[in-house]
Amino acid sequence: MNVNSKQRQGKTWRASALAPVQRPSARQIPTPALASQHPTPHSPLPTPHSRRSRVLASQRQQGSVLIAVLAITLLLSFIISRFIDEAIDDLEYRAIFNEPSDVRSFTYSMLEVALATVYEVGLIDEGKLFAPEQGWADPIHYAGITVPNGWSVDIQIQDESGKLPINTMSEDMLNNMLEESFDFDFGTARELSSMLLDWIDENDSRRLNGAESDDYLRRDPPYRAANAPLQSLEELRLIEIWEDEFFDEDGQPNELFAQLDSMVSVLHTGAANLNSSPQSVLELLAQQDGYDEDHLFDGLDDLPYLQQTPGSANSENSGVEVSLLRITVNLWRGQVPFTVSALVEPNFSTETEASGSAPGDDSSDAPKTGATSEQDAIAYPFTILQVSEYTQGRPSSPPARYSALDIGEESDSF
């Protein structure tokens, strides 16, 4: 090797040593680590503001999730609490039927206590009942009964004879009531009375403004006239004209029906007891018999009720004695009551017959069949016309006597 070639090699080495080293770019070696640590020119570096925005967005999302969880928890808690309340009520209601020996027997015992109280107080006044102020309004207090712990008993005694007997009212009385108390004109009142009388009479002869089975059989669906006394006031829904005046388009009772219900009854057939009659009944009777109802209770001595029918009153329509009672016993053990309601007719007698056996005792060992003769032999002081469970009578209007004498409804005795 000559000198010139050595010099050229030295120059070449020095040039290569002095030349900068070229490294491969990110595009040439696309490794994930380098790409993440050294973003490309197309991916701008994150700024502090963008990082703060991402953190706030993440926190808002977490807050929304928390609110949703709390709302669901609250809804589930409400549903569970309602379910528990309804389950408790259902269990209490079912417990009534599962323990008839406790609940039902005690309720009927309270009914007997009420009947015995009414009977005993009635005997004090020679077997006559006039008004609750005689002392029979609160049988539990009168008899000194102790109610078991955790139970609650309520006894209501209503005089059902303070209303007018719609099944036995005369046509003249019925027309007068429809005109004076309900403001029907002469023609409409006659149509209503004729329709009702045709419905309850025993024959199929149509009155001038009435209707019989032939008319009702043309309806859809067809039915026949009852030709018997009304069993309930709702039965008026089946009678022409009455269905339009006392019921709405859906067949539900209207305000006129409520007024009628406070004045008449389908349960008794005797005279209305003036001591328990509402104001509307007293006004009608006073207008019919020609006396002033405002002074009906004037001149009473020591007792706040009438014991004799005023001379100006018609004894056929007006009376002063109780002829029909509704006794309702409610027994609570929780929120659901067990109810027994009895419709009874007093049949008192102050005369006692000598007998060598106890009431109801019979020397015969023959089984009892419930015949009328066996019932008469018991000499029970009430005729039980109806007994029902879980139902009670309609609410009654306060007697007009209370306002006339300034007596509170809560008064039991005088």
Task: Please characterize this protein's 3D structure.
The chain is of the alpha/beta class. The chain has helices spanning 3-18, 32-37, 48-98, 103-124, 139-143, 171-180, 186-200, 213-216, 242-245, 255-263, 279-289, 372-378, 400-405; strands at 152-159, 164-165, 264-265, 272-273, 318-319, 325-332, 337-346, 382-389. The strands form 3 sheets. It has a 4-stranded antiparallel beta sheet, with helices on one face. The radius of gyration is 45 Å and the shape is extended. 24% of the residues are buried. Residues 12-18, 31-37, 352-359 and 410-414 have low confidence and may be disordered.
Compile the SSE list and pairings.
Elements: H1 3-18, H2 32-37, H3 48-98, H4 103-124, H5 139-143, E1 152-159, E2 164-165, H6 171-180, H7 186-200, H8 213-216, H9 242-245, H10 255-263, E3 264-265, E4 272-273, H11 279-289, E5 318-319, E6 325-332, E7 337-346, H12 372-378, E8 382-389, H13 400-405
Helix pairs in contact: 6-7
Descriptive keywords:
single chain; 4-stranded antiparallel sheet; two-stranded parallel sheet; 8 strands; 40% helix; 10% strand; extended; cell membrane; transmembrane helix; transmembrane; cell inner membrane; membrane
